[in-house]
Every structure is written in structure tokens, then in C-alpha cells.
Fold:
Amino acid sequence: MPLDAQIESILFWKGEPMKVKKLAETLNVEVGVIEQGLESLAAKLAGRGVGLVRLEDEVSLGTSSESSELIAKLTKEELVKDLGKAGLETLTIILYKGPVKRSDIDYIRGVNSQFILRNLLIRGLIERVTNPSDERTFLYKPTFDLMSYLGVASLKDLPEYDSSIKALEEHLVTQTTNETTE
Amino acid sequence: MPLDAQIESILFWKGEPMKVKKLAETLNVEVGVIEQGLESLAAKLAGRGVGLVRLEDEVSLGTSSESSELIAKLTKEELVKDLGKAGLETLTIILYKGPVKRSDIDYIRGVNSQFILRNLLIRGLIERVTNPSDERTFLYKPTFDLMSYLGVASLKDLPEYDSSIKALEEHLVTQTTNETTE
Amino acid sequence: MEPFKIKTEQFEGPLDLLLNLIEKRKLHINDIALAKVTDDFITHLQQHQEYPMEQSAHFILIASTLLLIKSKSLLPTLELTEEESQSIEDLEKRLKEYQRIKELSVHIQKLFGVAPIYWKNPTKREPIFAPDASMTMDNLYETMKSVLLHLPQKKEKLPEAVVRQVISLEDMIEKLTDRVTSGLRMTFKEFSSEHKAEKVNVIVSFLAMLELVKNGLLKVDQQGTFDDIHMETEGQVGTPRYM
Structure:
């Protein structure tokens, strides 16, 4: 059984996002080999009813976005589509800039984002992880459920993703130098 | 999107067997057409990690038989894995507050608990029952096995049961009232 | 310039309001645009006093930077400290970044919930009772205590510095009003030198002064480019209408 098929089996069985590293351990190969397997799997799934969704170091299988109307008819779960202005702004910052500190979100929006972040966390649209460069703070990043709502298989598929990442990073550099005066 | 891909999407999402007739209704075609689509899907899935399983008038997707060893290994791992902080936290809330809605657990923890609940269910630590006051939602409660493992005859035997419940309830009330203003 | 009519719209914060004002006038983000919308911004603040304490603190901080910009445009001789120039520069940068986020958020709005990807429903499995060594009564109780301890606070405490500045704004208006009603002829330099302890007071004095100017309570004249600004009352001075 080829590696891409093995990966497909595991992801199907799991039905949840899985770390690439975990796949490598399970299949007893290097991470690089898994990455190749994932590429090959993605190619084989092209045009099919199921596709590979990637977010940072995790992957998951999901229905292809062409079939969402079909599934929407079958599912009883109603998607809560209302984000509100604050939610929309905050999600945009996290999507195009994440993982991002709360202070950065507050700085860009000019208001305290505590409540809206909590709201988005509870809705499962974002997640909070410990900041690797400062253990006392957190970083906010998108979840697979957010990808699901947006119907994108990768952040790179978001409109203007590449150009905006660059623009925002330039801002961030100037901001970090200013931060010491705050 | 070709019919076989549409069928694949639906069966993938469903996660359990589905009647061929139901597929025909959903896709608004004759049963015979679905049968052709299934044949074509089976052909496309040959040699892959996921295959079509047929049982009388029902079909489902399942991991291919070559991967059964791999899956058995993962299943075992899942059961012995550490619950972790998030798992223990969720379990504690269900023990004290159960039967409890998922949204209440999410509010109390301030994060989404979807995957953790799934793991606790698989491990037989909690069970899911239909919410008597809202049939579309579920309530989570500790299993009998868990109670006897802990040696508690009743939830009231848990340390500081009354005061903890009171604090949780108060929080849930303020949460709900805040919610409407956001 | 005519004060811009602002619809009763819910703004997410001072930057949201400011951006809205600039975009309504079809201006690019720069100091000229900011000076132009300063009055609109202050007007909005006066008409919407219902913002909660913390919110209005953020608004007032931005307002003081705006008034600084406006003052500079009215009085080119006004020397800005490095910190003041920095705060002006910062405001422009933040606005530009916020504007970019707003543009991008249009994409997100269009995508959200339209063609979702669905995950696989969990396949039914017979549960196998598999407890974990961490599941002891002690641990469960400790975990409950920690859960209760970490229940989110209803309101986050307002940073003290912010509160102090808000309060000083009101003080300053009161003091300035007292001074001018006594018909005293004074210069802005004298007035602000009484409070040189804190830079923010200078801004706030300006704010108060400009506010009074706008309400027609004061006449400001500047004799020469490098002269001080003279302030004097024009007839009867009432309490500034800050309600």
C-alpha cells in the first residue's frame, strides 16, 4: 500500500486534524517523506469529493467545497454565519497575521479585544496557544473549523494572502520597535 | 462535479452507512444512476486508503483492509494516551455539572471542547444523551463505569460539590446575559 | 469647514470612527486629513457620551493626538516633542494598517459560511472504558478549583494611566474655563507651564482650549509667527457644553 494511501486511511479514520509529525511517527518515516506523501495524496484527490486541508503543521480530510450545498441540505446543524463587525475584523487579523498576540490585535483595532476573542474561542473559530517566545503570553491562530467556514483548504487560498502578509509584516517590524516606548 | 465525487462527499461526511435510495433522493436521480455512480466510485478508490463498503442496500466509506493493522495500533494508542490538562478539565466539569450542554462546557472553559468530548466518549468516561428540553442538542454526563472507578455513589459525594455548582451556575447566568449585548 | 454629519452608527472604537470620517471625505491617511477630521471626531465624542468608561478613554487618547495634529496645522510654530511626533506617526501607521485589515475583511465576509468544507462525522464506535492515572479525587477537585479560579472576569480593570488622563481632561477644561472667565489675558505657554509635569497635560490644555474656541468662548490670536497665542474671553462665558 503506497504511503499516500496509508496517510489517507489514517486521516479518514481519525476524522480530526492530525499533526504531520504524528503521522511520521505512526508510519515510522521522516517528516519530509510524509510531506511528499501528502503532496501526492493532494494530487490524487484533485477533482474528487474529498480533499486535503492544511493548517500550519496539521492536516485533515474534508469534503470539497463544491459539495457544500449538497451537504448543507443533509445536515441538521445550522451554521451560525453572523460574525458582527468586531468578529470579522478580529478574524481577519488572525487569519492574515496569525499567530498573533492579543496586544497586537488591540493595537490594530484600537480597542480592547478581550470579549470578542473569548467569543471566537468558544465558537471554535480561533485557538489560543502559548507564545513560544514568551511563556506568559498567548498567541491566537485560526482553527480548522474556521477553514471549514471559509471553504479554503489552506490559508494561501485566501484572497490577497501573499501580498498582505508582506505588508503586514513590515508594519509589525515598525510596531515592535515602537513597543518599547509604550 | 461528477456524480461519483458527489456520492463520495456525502458518504465521507456521513461517516456511517447510507441507503442507496436515500442517496438517490438527495442527488435527485434514479437509483440506477446512483448504482452506476457507485461503480465508478469503487473503481476510482481501488488501491486507495479508503474504500466503498456495500451491505445489502446500504453503502459507506471505510478504511481499506490493508490498513487494518495500522488502525488497530492507533485505536489502542488513543485509549492509553494521557487525558492531558484539557481532558481532565472537561471531565471534571461534566462530573460536577453533568448532565451538561456542550455550549456550557465551552463557556466555562472559554474554549471549544469538540475534540476532547469525542475522546472522552470513545474512552467510555462520559456518555451523550439527548437533551430533554431541546431534542436537537445533547447533554454529556459521566458514565456508570467512571463513577464506580472513582468510587462515588452520587455526584454529591464529590468534594465541595454544592459550592462549586453554585459558582458555575452563577457564571453561566452572567455569561448568558452578557452574550446578548455583544 | 462644515462639521461632517455623522450618522448614528456603532463604531468599534476610535480608529474605526476616524477611518470612517477620513473615508467619507475621500481623503488619504496623512496629517492633513487628520487635522481636517478632528472637529468631526470631537463632535462625535460629544454626541455619543454613552460609550463605556474604557471605550471613551481610548477615544479621548486618540482625540488628544488629533488635537495635537490640528494645533500643529493651525500653529506651525508649535514645537512638538519627540514623543508627540512619534504618537502622530503611530496614529497614521495604525490607521493605515487598520484600513488594510478592513479591506481584507471584505474577502472574509464574502467567504464566511458560503461554501463550507464539512468534516467527517465520527463513525460510531463501541466505547472501551479506558481511565487515566490522573483521574483521582484529589486531582479532580484541584482541577475544579482551578476551573473556578479561571472563570473569566466580568470586566477587565481599566489601566490606571488611562483613567488618570481621562480625569485630567475634565479637570483641565474646568481650570481653563475658570482662568478665562476671570478675563485674564494669558498665553498658552504660561497656562501649560503650570502643568509641565506631564506632557499629556499640554495636549489636554490644548484640547480644552480648542474646545472653548470652537464654542466661541475664546478668541485666539497670534501676532506673529513666533509669538505666543493670546487667549481672552469674548463676553459672557458659560460652562462649556460638554453634555
